[in-house]
Amino acid sequence: MTYVLQFGDIERFLPLVWQGAIITLQLTAAAIIGGFAVGLVSAVGRGSKWSVLRVPAAIYVEVTRNTPLLVQIFFAFFALPSLGLRLTPLEAAFFALIWNNGAYMTEILRAGLVSVHRSQLEAGQCLGMSWLQVFVYVQLPTAIANVYPAMVGQFMIIFLNSSVASTIGVEDLMGAAGYIQSETLRAFEIYLVTAAAYVSLGFVIRGIFAALAPDNPFKRIVCRWVHALSAAGSSPHPSRSDV
Amino acid sequence: MNAVELHEVCKTYGDTAVLNGVSLVARKGSVIAIIGRSGSGKSTMLRCVNGLETIQSGRIDVAGHRIGDGRTNLRMLRQKVGIVFQGYNLFPHYDVLNNVTLALRLVKKISRTEAEEIAARVLGQVGLAEKLRARPSELSGGQQQRVAIARSLAMAPEIMLFDEVTSALDPELTGEVLKVLADLAGSGMTMLLVTHEMAFAQNIATEVVFMHGGKIWESGPPSQLFANPQTAELRKFISQ
Ligand SMILES: Nc1ncnc2c1ncn2[C@@H]1O[C@H](COP(=O)(O)OP(=O)(O)OP(=O)(O)O)[C@@H](O)[C@H]1O
Ligand SMILES: [Mg+2]
Questions:
Q1: Residue A59 confidence (pLDDT)
Q2: Which phi and psi (to 5°) does residue B152 adopt?
C-alpha cells in the first residue's frame, strides 16, 4: 500500500498553522509563568506549619494530579458558567493550563525547597538576613538549581498538553490542524506538518531553558559583563544598592 | 570591658539538659578556646551566643544585646556576632564574590561597588583575592572555609564564633585555616572557638575552657590548664 503525499492542497492554509503556533506558544508561556507563580505559593503553603495553608494546598495538588487535564479544561469551559463564570475558550484554556501546571510545579518546587539543607538557611540567618531574604536569595535559587531538569521536563509536558485546548475550540496548532484537515481531507499531510511544528517549537523552548539554566557557564560570563558595564556606567556616583 | 558574658545559662532539648548553668566571661579582645569531649555542649553554647538556640534560663549579654529576656533583636545582634561552622555552608549557586557581598547588600544596604571593595579586602585577608569568580564547588575545603570566614568578617563583627572550623579538613588544609584564625586573633578580634587542635589552642588562646556534661568544668590560661589540670576529667581528656 502506498500513499502519495500531496502538500499542495494544504499550502494555502499555512498562515493558519502559523497563527495556531503563536497561540500554542502563548498558552505555553502562560502555563509556565502562571504555573510557576501558583506552584511557588502553593509549595510554600504545603510546607507551612499552619494547617490552614497546608491542607488547601494539599487538596489542590491531589485533586489536580488525579484528574485528567481534559476534565479540568472541560470544567473550566462548560462547568464554570453554572457558577456564573463565563470564560471564552481561550480564557478557559489559560485558566486550566495554569491550574494544572501549578499543581505539578508545587510538587517539584516543594522537593527543591526541602532539598536545601537547614544549615544553608542558618548561614543566611547568621549573617543577619531576614527570613524573607533567606528564602528569596538563598533557599529559592538553590531549590530551583536542584530541580531544574524536572522543572523543564514538566514545562515540556505542559507545552505538548496545551493541545487539549483544541477540544473546546481554541485555534491553537492542534485546533488549526483539525480545521485544515476537515477542509482538505489531507490528514496525513497536515498532521505531519503539525508534528513537525511541535517538534520545532519544543526544540526552541528547550533551547531557551538550557540557556537560562543555573549552571550554564555562558550565562555567568554574560552576567559578569552586565555587572561590569553597569558598574562602569555608575562609577562616578555611588550606585544605590540594587540586588 | 566584656564582649560576651554568660550567666547561669541553662538549655534543654525536651527532657535532656544540654547546658546546666554555664557562666563565662570573655573580655574584649580575648581569645577563648573551648574544648571538651563530644556531646559536652560546646556547639550548643556557641549557638546560644548568637541566638540560634533559645535558652530556658539564665542570660547572655553579647555586644550590648541581652539574650534571655525574650526581646532581643536577633538580626541586629547577628550583624555584630559572626559565626563559622565546621561545614562551611557557602551558598552554592553564588560565586565567591557574591557569597561575600550578598549580606552586605541585603542587610547592611551597602552599594554593590562598595560591597565588592569590602569583599576584595576580606578575601585578601584570608589569602583568596584571586578566587573572586570561583564557585564554591570549584574550591578545596580549606579555601571554602576561608571564604566562609571572609563572608563573616565582611560584616565587620565585634565578636567571632568558630565551631570546629578545621574538623572537616584534611591535615594539610588545616594549617591554612589555622593561620587565618591566628592572624585574626593577633588583630585583636574577640573570639570564641571550639577546637580539637590542642596545640593551636595552647598557642593562641588567652583562656581555655573545658566543658563537661553541659558545665564549664575547668578554665584558665592555657599554660596553666594544660600543664596542671585540676580535675580527673580534664586529665583524662588531655591524655587522650
Ligand atoms: N537539636 C537537638 N535536639 C536534641 N538534642 C540535641 C540537639 N542538638 C544537640 N543535642 C544534644 O545536646 C548535646 C550537646 O550537643 P553539642 O552539639 O553541643 O555537643 P558538642 O560538645 O558540640 O559535641 P561535638 O564535639 O560532637 O560537636 C548532645 O548530647 C546532643 O545529642
Ligand atoms: Mg559540636
A1: 97
A2: -70, -45
CA B42 to ligand 1: nearest atom = 21
Within a domain: B96: no
Q: Is the pLDDT of residue A235 over 70?
A: no
Q: Do A126 and B82 touch (CB under 8 A)?
A: yes
Point out the ligand 1 atom lying closest to the alpha carbon of residue B46: 18
Whether A15 has its CB under 8 Å from any CB of chain B: the answer is: no
Residue B52 to residue A224, Cβ atoms within 8 A: no
Pocket test for ligand 1, best of B43, B45, B53, B163 (most atoms within 8 A of CB): B43
Structural domain including B176 reads 2-89+157-239
Question: CATH number, domain at B39?
Answer: 3.40.50.300
Better-scored residue on pLDDT, A103 or B170? A103
Q: Does residue B35 form part of some domain?
A: yes
ipTM of this model? 0.90
Judged by a CB distance cut-off of 8 A, whether residue B62 touches chain A is: no
CATH number of the structural domain spanning residue A43: 1.10.3720.10
Residue B169 located in a structural domain: yes
Number of domain units in chain B: 1
Q: Kindly state whether residue B113 falls inside one of the protein's structural domains.
A: no
Taking residues A202-227, report their average pLDDT.
85
In a domain, A241, yes or no: no
Q: Give residue A233's pLDDT.
A: 63
Q: What is the pLDDT of residues A101-157, one digit of tens each?
A: 999 999 999 999 999 999 999 999 999 999 999 999 999 999 999 999 999 999 999
- Mean pLDDT value across residues A6-24: 91
- Residue A126 makes CB contacts below 8 A (sequence gap 6+) with B50, B52, B78, B82, B83, B152
